[in-house]
Specification:
115 residues; mainly beta; Thrombin, subunit H; six-stranded antiparallel β-barrel; 49% strand; globular
């Protein structure tokens, strides 16, 4: 998914454990978190999302003390492509709405910026 020369606006952290992401309005899981930054996220889920789709999603992340914290953000689809597993898609979203507390927690979870 990434190349050595790829440059991003913000560092991302790959999810190493399953983190389900739920659509708030549909009350259904839309995918698993692939990676996350303060500017966006990548999901893997069943089916391709509509181009430009805006969603309000919720998921949990551990805080610095290891406690599960609820994150609720607005995201907009930027791209999607088929995954290796039939019927699954990788989807990239940019963050369009979040509270300052949620941004702070995401930034803490992602960790220090690489030099």
């Amino acid at each position: 998914m990434t190349t050595p020369n790829e440059q991003r606006r913000a560092p991302r952290k790959r999810a190493t454990l399953p983190i389900p992401v739920m659509d708030v309005f549909r009350d259904q899981v839309v995918g698993q978190l692939g990676n996350l930054s303060v500017g966006g996220l990548m999901l893997i889920g069943a089916g391709a999302p509509l181009a430009g789709l805006v969603r309000q999603v919720v998921f949990t992340l551990p805080d610095t003390a290891g406690n599960a914290r609820r994150i609720e953000i607005g995201i907009q689809e930027q791209w999607h492509e088929p995954a290796a597993l039939a019927g699954q898609f990788w989807s990239g979203y940019r963050l369009v709405a979040a509270s300052d507390d949620d941004i702070h927690l995401i930034d803490q979870w992602v960790g220090p910026h690489p030099d």
